[in-house]
Amino acid sequence: MNIRPARLEDLGALMEIFEQARRFMQEHGNGNQWINGYPSAELITNEIKSGHCYACENELGELVGTFCYIEGVDPTYLKIYEGKWLNDEPYAVIHRMASNGKQKGISSECLEWAFAHCGNLRIDTHRDNIVMQNILKKHGFKQCGIIYIANGTERIAFHKTVTPTNKES
Fold first, then answer.
1. CA–CA dist 129, 126 (Å, integer)
2. Domain-by-domain residue ranges, the chain?
3. pLDDT for position 101
4. Rounded to an integer, what distance in angstroms lies between the CA atom of residue 53 and that of residue 16?
5. Comparing C-alpha atoms, which of 93, 72, 104 is closest to residue 149?
6. CA nearest 44: which of 1, 85, 12, 21?
7. What CATH class does 2-161 carry?
8. pTM > 0.85
C-alpha cells in the first residue's frame, strides 16, 4: 500500500470512495453519518490544497482509500465530556477515513501510517459506527469520552499514544 498526499486530479476517485463508504455505513446500521452529501467535493478540495488529505493506492496504483490527517489542535477536541484524553501533549487527528471496499486492511494501513508519523493520535466516530469503533479498539485506541463536532452532533472520542518509555497506552 502506498499512502501519499492526495492531488486535485484524485478528487473524482476520492468522491467515489466516499460514496462507497456512505453505502457501506448505511448497510451496516450507520445511516446517520455522512448524510446530505458529506463530505462535499469543496471540503475535500480544500483538504487537498491544505495538504491534509491522503490517498491510499494499491500495488496497481488504484486509489482504494483515503483519510484526513492533521497535526495540531483540533477545535472540536478542546472540550471532552464524560471522560478525558489520555494526555495533553501535542497530537494529530484522523478524520474521514474511507475505503472503496475492494481491498481489506485499508483502515489498518491508514492508522499505522498515522501512528508512525505521530505517536499521539486522536480520532472520533459516530455512535452508530460500530465497525469503526471495533477497528479503533482492535488497534489499541482507548475510548475517552464524548466530543461535539461543529454542527452540534456528538461523537465518541478515541485516543492512542506512546508514553515516553515507548510503551503504548
1. 5
2. 2-161
3. 83
4. 15
5. 93
6. 12
7. alpha beta
8. yes
Burial 135-146 (b: 16+ CB within 10 A, else e): bbeebebeebbb
Q: Is 154 strand, coil or helix? A: strand
For residues 165 and 79, what is the distance between their CA atoms, to the nearest angstrom? Answer: 27
Query: Where does the chain show beta strands of DSSP type E?
Result: 2-5, 53-57, 63-71, 92-99, 120-125, 142-148, 154-161
Q: Is the pLDDT of residue 9 over 50?
A: yes
Beta-strand runs (E) in 23-141 = 53-57, 63-71, 92-99, 120-125
C-alpha cell at 45: 478540495
Grade residue 155 by pLDDT with cuts at 50, 70 and 90.
Answer: very high
Residue corresponding to grid cell 464524560: 82
Give the number of residues written for the chain: 169
